[in-house]
């Protein structure tokens, strides 16, 4: 079902690109909000964030801001280790992207973009049966690369098809405290590349 939905959406965008005509874009609506079109055509957060907003700063460019906040508080049985555990987990990420239109038409425009990414992750785990406490924290900085197409179906509503890649650098710290007063402190640093993935969305201009 998901592949069929992606295929249908791609065919629609390709057809609209072929039959669209040249003209001037209406940039009178400066602010917009983006939502992802997920499986079964339901709406969810765009670019992996709870909130995604953009502001036109010129006829050919805009700034897009996204923030994601996830929190999980758990008390009960850990299915992996089959033990009673307390788990508190927090994940915050912020994306800031500069988008530049490389081809403008009346209803359709293609764009490229880049921008920084900042993330903070923390997880606290306590195992009652083993009396082991573990704290994991991670700071991530990165840079995104974007190519996309935006098609206006109405004056204030557009469809989005976008490829996005990330290159990130993370610093991870794990502290494990055991009942016999032994503490293990481990630091890790690594670079990771997330290859281009396609996402489809809808944008509402205010």
Which structural traits does this protein have?
206 residues, 70% strand, mainly beta, 8-stranded antiparallel β-barrel, Porin, single chain
Structural description of this entry:
This protein is mainly beta. It has one domain (2-199): Porin (Beta Barrel). Helices cover 9% and strands 70% of the residues. It has 1 helix and 9 strands. The protein has one helix at residues 2-19; strands at 31-37, 43-45, 51-58, 61-78, 83-104, 108-127, 132-154, 157-177, 183-205. It has an 8-stranded antiparallel barrel. A hairpin with a 2-residue loop joins strand 7 and strand 8 (157-177). The longest helix has 18 residues, at 2-19.
Short recap of the structure:
Helix content is 9%, strand content 70%. It has 206 residues and is mostly beta strands.
List the helices and strands and how they pair.
Blueprint: H1 2-19, E1 31-37, E2 43-45, E3 51-58, E4 61-78, E5 83-104, E6 108-127, E7 132-154, E8 157-177, E9 183-205
Antiparallel strand pairs: 1-2, 1-3, 1-9, 3-4, 4-5, 5-6, 6-7, 7-8, 8-9
């Amino acid at each position: 079902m998901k592949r069929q939905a992606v295929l249908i959406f791609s065919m629609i965008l390709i057809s609209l690109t072929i039959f669209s005509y040249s003209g001037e874009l209406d940039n009178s609506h400066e602010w917009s909000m983006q939502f992802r079109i997920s499986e079964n055509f339901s709406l969810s957060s765009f670019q992996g964030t709870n909130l995604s907003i953009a502001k036109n700063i010129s006829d050919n460019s805009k700034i897009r801001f996204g923030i994601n906040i996830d929190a999980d508080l758990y008390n009960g049985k850990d299915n992996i280790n089959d033990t009673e555990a307390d788990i508190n987990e927090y994940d915050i990420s912020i994306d800031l992207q500069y988008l530049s239109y490389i081809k403008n038409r009346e209803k359709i425009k293609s764009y490229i973009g880049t921008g920084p990414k900042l993330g903070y992750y923390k997880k606290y785990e306590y195992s009652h049966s083993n009396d082991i406490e573990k704290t994991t924290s991670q700071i991530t900085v990165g840079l995104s690369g974007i190519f996309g197409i935006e098609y206006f179906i109405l004056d204030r509503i557009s469809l989005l098809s976008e490829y996005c890649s990330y290159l990130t650098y993370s610093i991870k710290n794990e502290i494990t405290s055991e009942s016999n007063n032994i503490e293990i402190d481990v630091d890790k640093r690594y670079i990771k590349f997330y290859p281009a993935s396609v996402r489809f969305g809808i944008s509402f201009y205010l």
